[in-house]
Design a protein that fits this description.
There is one protein chain. By secondary structure, the protein is α+β, with helices and mostly antiparallel strands. The protein has one domain. Helix content is about 65%, strand content about 15%. The protein has helices at about 10-40, 75-105, 105-115, 120-155, 160-165; strands at about 45-50, 55-65, 65-70, 75. The protein has a four-stranded antiparallel sheet. Strand 2 and strand 3 form a beta hairpin. Helix 1 runs antiparallel to helix 2 (about 75-105) and helix 2 runs antiparallel to helix 3 (about 105-115). About 20% of the residues are buried.
Length: about 160
């Protein structure tokens, strides 16, 4: 498996930071989405903003034919959660791909990263694991590089090079 180039380490650090941010936003959005699904399909209500019943109001959802229909009149926050999570998931996918491609990981690791935005709580776990693994890898590579440079600087120069100076 090819290793990341030393020159890309600053890009990797930025990509991991962006991934961490998108991971948390996506994870929170997914938890809100799960709560919204429980409220809609379990309790048959949706949350509305600026509804005639109040600033924030739970309004009934009724089954008409094969679909659920909202009875609220304000801004449907439940629908907003669905839309926001969908768009943030797209940004999260891009962040996952960026980290994966810069780190040159195998394909299965990309699939695991993508799962973080679909399985509740997995994005928080993956964020911790990815950040830990990447930071450990980068610091290890930088230490080995520094040791090589120190060893090369401490090594005596061959006599032919000294004569040429």
């Amino acid at each position: 498996m090819p290793q990341p180039r030393i020159a890309t380490f600053p890009q990797i650090r930025r990509a991991v930071r962006f991934y961490q941010i998108t991971s948390v936003i996506t994870g929170v959005g997914l938890l809100l989405l799960c709560a919204e699904m429980v409220m809609k399909y379990g309790f048959h209500v949706e949350l509305f903003l600026n509804d005639p019943q109040g600033f924030l109001a739970w309004r009934e959802v009724v089954l008409q034919g094969d679909e659920w229909v909202s009875t609220g009149e304000g801004l449907n926050l439940s629908l907003g959660i669905l839309i926001a999570h969908g768009w943030f998931y797209v940004v999260y996918i891009l962040a996952c791909f960026r980290v994966w491609s810069l780190m040159r990981w195998p394909f299965w690791r990309l699939i695991m990263l993508f799962g973080g935005g679909v399985v509740p709580f997995l994005s928080f776990i993956m964020e911790f694991i990815v950040a830990r693994d990447v930071k450990a890898y980068l610091s290890g590579r930088e230490e080995r590089l520094a040791e090589k440079k120190a060893a090369a600087a401490a090594a005596p120069t061959p006599p032919t090079e000294e004569a040429a100076r």
